[in-house]
Structure prediction request, 768 residues.
Amino acid sequence: MREVAVIGVGMTKVGQHFDKALRDLFVDAALKAFDDAGNPNIDALYVGNMVAGEAIGQSNLGAYLADYLGVKVPAFHIESACSSGGAAFILGVLGVMSGYFDTVLVGGVEKLTEYPTQTTTLHLAGAAEQEYEVYFGASFTSLNAMIMRYYMHKFNVPREYFAEWPVMMHENATKNPYAQLRFKTTIEKVLSSPIIADPLTLFDCSPTGDGAAAVIITTVENAKKITDTIVKVAGFGMGVDSISLAMRNELTTLAASVNASRKAYKMAKIEPKDVDVAEIHDAFSIMAILAIEDLGFSEKGKGAIDLHDGKYAKDGDIALNPSGGLKARGHPVGATGVYQIAEITLQLRGDAGEMQVPDAEIGLAQNIGGSGSSITVSILKRER
Amino acid sequence: MREVAVIGVGMTKVGQHFDKALRDLFVDAALKAFDDAGNPNIDALYVGNMVAGEAIGQSNLGAYLADYLGVKVPAFHIESACSSGGAAFILGVLGVMSGYFDTVLVGGVEKLTEYPTQTTTLHLAGAAEQEYEVYFGASFTSLNAMIMRYYMHKFNVPREYFAEWPVMMHENATKNPYAQLRFKTTIEKVLSSPIIADPLTLFDCSPTGDGAAAVIITTVENAKKITDTIVKVAGFGMGVDSISLAMRNELTTLAASVNASRKAYKMAKIEPKDVDVAEIHDAFSIMAILAIEDLGFSEKGKGAIDLHDGKYAKDGDIALNPSGGLKARGHPVGATGVYQIAEITLQLRGDAGEMQVPDAEIGLAQNIGGSGSSITVSILKRER
Prediction:
């Protein structure tokens, strides 16, 4: 199998971009990635996006964005809800591994503002099961609240422990120029913010926002011609599970996360403890805790306790979400998975600025679709 | 590069399936493909679909359908408008070529009935350019009518010649048990049917319908263990062009079709004249004629004349659309490209029943997204 490396990244600030259309955002990120990679020719474009069809009525985003970017190469639009970006990245890597393409651009883009909140919620609800969840009034927040409530009961974890996650994320985001929520918060503020679905408060939930990210990947052989710092795609996996929570074997373990990560670790020939830095999919505080456990960083039931003990701080055993994560960098749905790859790449290159985790060599990105129905895990490794 | 073969196919009848949900249709087709392939284990699922997010509010179709099918493997939803099926097939083939997956199922599914025609039209319009086409009232039919009008003017081809296409398609469909419109028609009926967008009449347009198709692909090495008749994926290509007609260099040539097919021919080491049977994307009569020319079967401007001369009949030089094509087999949008692969596979195996083209060895499938913004061409070859 051909080995693959990331040679360029680009991101836009996550936020409310009233002055930019979806394709403007995408091109902004893509051009930065081209620039970062030394403007190579690309053979294909892979785009992760969830709701452009519903929100702006534009389908066939592959061709649409390839055209606007000025590169009429084979172009594919991949959708797997909030994990669209992670899925697009994996398919892009497979494209290069196949030998059919040498160099490809993987991008993710989402435009959520300029629509009424109700409309946005309706579109995003497509990631839940229509017949057995959405139809009966279950929102994403309520589904996550149920998981959190049950987790707190099962493992006897106090509510306050979860609040430490948003506090750390907001702190991290102050160092990230691309983050949406660049202000600090406190445990008291998290706990006293409005309840969205008990026990989740406003500050436990990631914001909606617009954004685009892009990465350019090629063979390791090609990468060596242009740089001495190779960011290799060492391993990856995708796991799926029932969309409906009611059909799952368990509520407090995301089987898709376990399966995806075990496959990725095996391919990369590493263990969870070898990871230096990770970007995990903390759409809600409970999702961060489940990720910490399902990725094998903490024992089941101990994630929030290890967080409290500082294991996942920037100077801890594994630095989690130095970007601020979905919570504070923001969550431009179909683009999030590509932001994560871009962020991990910068970390491994030592180019993460104020976000930098010292001497990070192995990084992991975990991207969740729905309430855990499709999860991608990618492991990048720096080689010099 | 690993060589890839199709080892199983399954289709549902195209039509109005009021008694089946989208996932029922998909599973029906997938189980037939499993059965046909001797029930192998699969490593991944690739699904082509265009409008489930808009029409039934269900996104993340990969995980959704993997779950309902009972195979919790990595699952990807690919969307490129009407070429979603063809794009999913190419990505599935790349997955096997990469060596990461050995055996994968590629499916396509679409559910269009049970929604008001207006809603369906609205969703499908996402394949056109929202800002510069749809917003100003251009429908797909009117865009195709413009191309046809200009073609007739430029090449001085009489209207009647185009009517021969639907007549041939309806005739072919009477032999296809999966076809939606299994009745014959005449040139007079085509010409006197209601005008949809002058010069296109009702009988020049493909119908909307529900349907699902699935194919199972694996390495040629694996295929040889279970069958002596290898249907090899000999070549493939994807071309893209501007979505908006106004931005194209030319109206009467689909550059994406030219580019995709030249890449596929080169990879398969064949020339257009070597093709024995092809399934082309005849969403409208004019699209069939452009396909005939852009694929290199006829000279530009001569497609309708060669059709009139019988070159593309079942006993002609190249048998086109023995299934009845989009015109009469039907056009379940995101599934169409997978139907084509399944049909060509049956032809090459000699299993096409009454549709059979004698001793077909090389087959081609051409799948168009939008008015030619993304086009896939795949070439299959029988080896014994």
In short: Residues 162-206+233-383 of chain B form a domain with the Peroxisomal Thiolase; Chain A, domain 1 fold (CATH 3.40.47.10). The two ends of chain B are 21 Å apart (CA to CA).
